[in-house]
Amino acid sequence: MTALRILFFADAGAEVGGGHVMRCLTLARSMVERGAECAFVESRAAAPILRRFGWPAQTLLAMVDAGDLQGLVGWGRQFADRFAADLVVVDHYRAGEAEERALAGPDRRVAVIDDLADRAHACDLLVDPGYGRRREAYSELVHSKCAILVGPDHALVRPEFAQARPRALSRRARHDPVRRSLISFGLTDVAAVTGRAVEALVGRLGDTRLDVALGREAPSLEQVSALAGRDKRVRLHLDASDMASLVTDADIGLGAGGSSVWERACLGLPTAAAVLADNQAELLERLAEAGAVLALDARAAGFEAALAEAWDRLVDDGELRWRLSCRSSELCDGRGGERVAEALLDLLRG
Asked: Are the beta carbons of 327 and 268 closer than 8 angstroms?
């Protein structure tokens, strides 16, 4: 039997970060485990992320910037034809019905990963892992036969997080005081938020170790490196391949409001999460209302003061940490990649 071929079309860049590529990588690996052949259309911004996380399979490096959507779609259509793709998976906030039709073909289906529900799609399967999202949100945005998967059960979390989950939740249940903390605002470090956060907190650490995860191209790298050089409590982790371990070993976390929310939730890490872009605001508002995170806005005046206040609450209030851990871990078990992969197989073989 000929292997199914799947092409991924994911956005990346300084403004949007690397979350689209990371969740597509998770799904691609789940599909490869099930016998599929997978490839990526890369913009210049997506290519370093794929290389960093060891994607060995076929790719097409589109020599255009991530902002040139039509250029990427043109490259993607050529590659889809050459690769003989059975399916194109689109994870791109600026792509919609027109771009998806361009990437489709007579015998080629389209799946979309979205969490905005703000535009029409031409797809056969749609995944929205957002908390509180209902299928009805897409009833007027997709055709009637489109399969719709919603909610954190379909969050595309790397399998190492599900593997670490028993140890992490057992550790939370010990109710230990805060000895280790983690800052991880994403590899691309949108608006240099990591440096601002470390500067705001380094004077409040006491005996607490602060692990800081950054990418090698992050704008805060020089600033955080200097801080780590002066203060042994600050530990810098570049292009960390062991994020599941860092999250498991942390007692509290500070992070972005994008797809990494589900990594921390899977491992029950009590977290203050910050909105870095408009598309993250709705999710964090819902999670805060559900008691799963403390929500901040990195774009707001006074962010550093609000961050320091959230830090103090997490450090001082063991009951708060336990509530956040329990509620967040209830929402996501880290097995969304398996569920979405099986749904794609059903679609392609149905």
From this structure: no
Q: Are 239 and 346 in contact (CB under 8 A)?
A: no
pLDDT digits 0-9 by tens, 19-78: 899 999 999 999 999 999 998 887 777 777 887 777 765 555 555 566 788 988 998 999
Q: Whole-model pTM?
A: 0.94
Phi first, then psi: give them for residue 184, nearest 5 degrees. -150, 95
SS3 78: helix
Q: How many Å apart are CA 182 and CA 177, to the nearest integer?
A: 15
SS3 23: helix
Architecture of domain 159-331: 3-Layer(aba) Sandwich (3.40)
In CATH terms, are 5-157+335-349 and 159-331 the same topology?
yes
Integer CA distances (angstroms), 33 to 37, 54, 90, 193, 342, in order: 9, 16, 20, 36, 11
Residues 118-144, mean pLDDT to the nearest whole number: 97
Q: Which residues contact 150 (CB under 8 A, 6 or more apart)?
A: 127, 128, 129, 130, 133, 134, 135, 137
Domain 5-157+335-349 is found in CATH 3.40.1000.70: no
User: CA-CA-CA-CA torsion for 108, 111, 94, 219, nearest 10 degrees?
Assistant: -110
49: nearest Cα among 15, 11, 106: 11
